Amino acid sequence: MSSISSRRLAKELREIHSEGCPVGINLIEANDYAKWLFTIEVMGDSVYQNEKYTLQFRFDSHYPISSPAVQFVVTEGREAPMHPHVYSNGHICASILGNEWSPVLSVVAVCVTIQSMLASCKKKERPRDNDSYVRNAPENPKKTQFHYDDDTV
Amino acid sequence: MNFLEADVPDITDFPPQEQAPGLRTLDGSFRCDICGELYDAPVTIICGHCFCSACIRTALRTKQECPRCRKRTDEAHIRPNPALENVITSWKAARPYVLQLIKSEEEARASRSRRQVEETDTPIPKKRKRTTDRASSPEITDMGSSFAGPSRKPVSTKSIVPKSPTKQKKAKANEVIDMTSPDSDANDVAELPTPRAPKGLAPKDDELVQCPLCQKKVKYGVLNSHMDNGCKDPNSVDNAVKSWSKMFDGAGGKKKKAKQRKKDSDSDDEYPLPISNYTTLKDKQLKEMLIEQEIPVTGDRALWELRHQRWVTIFNANLDRSGPNRKTKGELRKELKKWEEDMTKKKKPPIQDLKEYQRKHKGEFAKLVEAARPKKVTKSSSPADSQSEPISAPPQSSSQSPNASDGKVVDSEEEPR
C-alpha cells in the first residue's frame, strides 16, 4: 500500500486520530482506502438542531487529484437533510465536490464545508428538481453534472 | 486490517505544539499540500505556492489553477526551487535524529532521571562519520601501533607504505632519532609516543610530537602553524612529496569515478518533454511515442495514454531536481512500472470482491436490473442530469473491464441504495 492516494489518505486518517475532527463531525468508519463514513451535526442555532446525518466518502485511485464521491447515507433508517442542495437520495449539489474541487482540500475540509452549508440554511426544503433527479440519478454523484446556480446557501 | 499499520511518516510523528513548539508545523511546512509527503523536487508556481513537481504537473493537467489559491497558471510557470530542495534533503537526514532525541528525552522524563546531560552532547549522528574519524584520531595517537598505521587516506596506501609495517616503524623511528634534539631521549619517542605524559609539562618547542590530525611527527613549536597549514609541512620535503603523491593518487581515483558517473547520467535529456493532446493522435503515432521513450507498449490505448502522460510528468519533474538528486531514466522507468502496478492493484481487489458479491447478491442484482429497465425509457426525457450511461448495466459490465475509469469500478462495488 504505497500508492499516492492511499498514503495521502493514511496521513489524513492519522491526523484525524491524533487531533480529532472539528466539533460536530465524527469519524465512524474507515476500514479501507475506499469508503469512509462520518456523522455530521450542526452546532448551535440552526434548522437542523439535534439532527445527525451520516456522510459517506468514496475514493478512487486518483485521489486527491480527483475529488471524492460524497453523499449522505439514506439507508437503514438514515435520511438526507432537507436542504435546497441535497437530494433525497443523498446526493449533494456543491461546487467544491465537482468543478471546484482542489487537491489541497481534505476529507475534513469537505465535512466542514458541508456542515457550514447546512448551518447557513434558513428553510428546510428539497431542490426543485428533486423528484426528476432522484428518478434518474446515477449511483455515483460524481457522474452527475450539477449546475451550480445558487451560492447563497 | 493492515490499514493503519502502513508506515507513513507524517507530522503527527512529532509531539503537539505544547510539548514541542514548532516541530509539527515545521514538518508540515516541508510537505506538499497535494501528496502530504516531504517535497520531492519542489517547485514554485506563479503565485508563489510550492508543490512537488510531479504533483502540481498532474493537478494542472486537470485544472489550470493553483490548488491553493485558485490563481490561473499552467505548466510553463513552474520553476524549480533548489533552496527548498536542499532544506528537504537536510531535514530528511535530521528528522529521524530529532525524533530519536525526542523519544529518548521522553524516556528520560518517564524514568524521572533528570540526569541526561550526556543527551546534549550525544555523539554526532551517522551522517557525519567522516568528522568523527578525525575527531577520534587524538586517541589513536597514544597507541604505539598507530604510528605507522593509519595514514590519512587508507585506501591509497599500497604504493606508499612499504610491505612490512614493522620496517616502516623502524625507519620512521630512526628518522625521529635523527631529527630529535639531543636532550630528548630517543627511546621514549620511539617506544612510548607520549613523552609529555608523566610530568604533565608542556613539551619543549623543538621536541617532536605527533600531530593529532595527520599523525606525523612535528616539532611542538611549529605544531600550531603546521595544523593551520592543513598538515602540509614545508620543512619536511619528504613528507610533502609523499602527501602530494598521495593526493594525486586519491584525486586520480576520484576523477575516474566522476568520469564514470558522468557517463551514467544522460546528458542529452536535459529538455522537458512536450505535453501531448492524445485525442488527436492515431494509435500508431502514440505507439511510436511510447517506443521512442522506451516505455512498454502493453495494454490497450487507454493505458498507453495514461502511461505516456505519467512518463512525461515524472520525466519533467525529474528535471526540476538539482543535479545530484536527479534520477536516471532507468530509475524513472522503474518508478513508472511501480505506479502502474499501484494503479492496477487498487482496481483488482474490488473486482475479486465483486465476483463474490455478485454471487451473493445475484437475486438483488436481478431485482435492480428489473427495476432499472423501465427507467431507461424515461431516461432520455430527463433534463436534470446529463448522465449518459445506463445505470442498469454497471454491476456486470464494469467487472469485465479493468481499464474502465475507476469511478465505474468503485460504483459497482457497493450498492448503497
The level of helicity of chain A is 10-25%
Quaternary state reads heterodimer
Report the span from N to C terminus of chain A: 39 Å
**Reported CATH architecture of chain A:** Roll
Give the beta-strand count of chain A: 4
Strand content of chain B: under 5%
Report the strand count of chain B: 5
Strand order of the largest sheet of chain A: 1-2-3-4
Largest interface: A-B, 55 and 51 residues
Whole-number count of domains of chain A: 1
User: Major beta sheet of chain A, specifics?
Assistant: 4 strands, antiparallel
CATH topology of chain A: Ubiquitin Conjugating Enzyme
Please describe the biggest sheet of chain B, giving its number of strands, its sense, and whether it closes into a barrel. Answer: 3 strands, antiparallel
Taken in chain order, the helices and strands of chain B follow as HEEHEHHHHHHHEEHHHHHHHH
Radius of gyration of chain A: 15 Å
* Beta fraction of chain A: 5-15%
Structure commentary:
The complex is a heterodimer of chains A (153) and B (417). Chain A has 153 residues and is α+β, with helices and mostly antiparallel strands. Chain A has a single domain, classed as Ubiquitin Conjugating Enzyme. Chain A has 3 helices and 4 strands; from the N terminus they run αββββαα. Chain A has a 4-stranded antiparallel sheet with strand order 1-2-3-4, covered by helices on one side. In chain A, strand 1 and strand 2 form a beta hairpin. With 417 residues, chain B is mainly alpha-helical. In chain B, the strands form 2 sheets. A 3-stranded antiparallel sheet of chain B has the order 2-1-3. In chain B, a hairpin with a 6-residue loop joins strand 4 and strand 5. The longest helix of chain B has 32 residues. Chain B is elongated. Chain B starts with 22 loop residues before the first helix and ends with a helix. The interface between A and B is large, with 55 and 51 residues.
